[in-house]
Amino acid sequence: MKKYLFMIGMAAAILLSACGEEEVSSETADTDEMKIVQDENEALKERVSELEEELSSAEEQEEEFMALKEENEALESELVQAEEDLASAQEEYEDNTVEESTEAVLEEPAEKDAAEEDDVPREWESALNSAYSYAEIMHMSKAGIYEQLVSEYGENFPEEAAQYAIDNIEYDWKNNALESARSYQDLMDMSHAAIYDQLISDYGDKFTEEEAAYAVENLE
What we know:
Elements: H1 2-107, H2 110-119, H3 122-138, H4 142-150, H5 159-168, H6 173-188, H7 192-200, H8 209-217
Helix pairs in contact: 1-3, 3-4, 3-5, 4-5, 6-7, 6-8, 7-8
């Protein structure tokens, strides 16, 4: 009888021990699973944060792009208007030139007019007329006008015709520099130093240093 009770006690002890191990094993598994879930949650939070930063950066880039697009459209509109004004002024100037030439023919001997026409080619006169138009409408510098006259993307005059125009044009270049400086200040909100650099730059307006200095000194 004692032996039988002892065996039953041993069996119960083994059973309880096994149950305890299962509980410990189950608690350990639950803890590991919770840690995995927490790690995944942290990873998701980090990814969400990264996506939010990327979205914010994309929105800023879109705003900058739209601002640049609007500025470009405004400049294109101004350029179209300037080209229209230039064409109108050039047409008006040519009409005035024709009238003056007609008056000169009536007042002076025909032989003298013929001699002057032989001395100055018609293309050279056209270059001079264009030079005056650029000076009056676009407020360009001497060097800038010369470059526009000879450029294949501009008037495409021969260098001799362009040089004749530059040698014979008379204009207030300091005032042109001032008008250009005012445009940069009003339309692009540039600083005086930046305007000066733009006015004298070989890739900009090509005014002389004296003309650019006069313009900057007379800005409001």
